[in-house]
Each structure stands twice: as structure tokens, then as C-alpha cells.
Amino acid sequence: MPHAILSRPDATEYAPYYGKYISLIPEGDLIKIMNEQFDHTLATLGNVSETQSLARYEPGKWSIKEVIGHLVDTERIMSYRALRIARGDETPIPGFEQDDYVRAANFDARPFAEIMNEFQAVRQATLTLFRSFDEAALSRRGTASDLAVSARALTHIVAGHERHHINVLQMKYLPLLK
Fold this sequence. Notes:
Layout lengths: L18 H4 L7 H16 L18 H23 L11 H8 L6 H20 L3 H5 L1 E4 L2 E4 H23 L5
Antiparallel strand pairs: 1-2
Helix pairs in contact: 2-5, 2-7, 3-4, 3-5, 3-7
């Protein structure tokens, strides 16, 4: 069965805060877009050394390792939310505090290559899950972080969240490595 994630979510399917992520994703086949986007991410970070992966563009900001680890954690959480909502689970899903997750994960102590491998594995699992959603599943709505959201919106939030952070890496981090 071909996947159904072709249309962007309507603004009624997500809280305004998430519009900044969704707006970064063009119309089209979201699975194809996410595959191409991930290939771009791998190419962008492919030459970052272990030492460089500890770079921060200013004190108190996350390192490159922490940014990628945050992407992994957030993709897992948003995919889980999408799964529950797509399957019709109406139980409200609690929020999470991203800074607490990054602190507890200790990404800087892990090899950068391992974090990138984990990101790749999570992305493959995400794409497999998203491919399984039909139009009915994508249209289902639930509550996450006390906000109404559709499964379709969550798929686009995952993609837009990655694009946002890769843009930040390209603008603020990677120029420091030259």
C-alpha cells in the first residue's frame, strides 16, 4: 500500500508553536522529503571529527553531539505520539523537558559516530512507522503536552524539527569548525 503522507497538515491540526517547524517542509511526499533530508544531514555532518562534535557556538549552548542527541530523542518521542494518536489512543500524552533529557543523556561522553548511527536507526524506524499510516490514521487527533495535535501534524513536526536544527548547525556551528 502506498503511503498517504502527501498533504501538509491544516493549521487546526497543531498548536501555533509548531508552525515554525511545519513551515520548513515543502508540499509533497513526506517520506521522500525525509529520506532526502536525512541524506543531506549525513552529508552535512559527515566530516565533523570527534573533537569538533564537542563544539558549542557559545557557552551554555548544546554541543553538536547534544544537538544530534536531542534530534534522536525528539524524533522518538514525536513518533511515539504519532503512533498512539494514529492508533486511536485518546489518553493525553505528557510533555517532556528537552534540556533535562539532554543533561541526563550525557551525549558528550559518547562517540559521535555512535550517536549518528543511532539517529540513522531511529530515522529508519520512524519512516517505517510513518509509511504504515493511512489517511484515517493521519487524520486522527489527540492531546500531547496539553495541546491538540493530529498524527499528520506530528509527522511534519518530526521533519521540520530536524530541518530547523540542521539549519542552526549550518549557520552557527559549522562555520566555527573551519
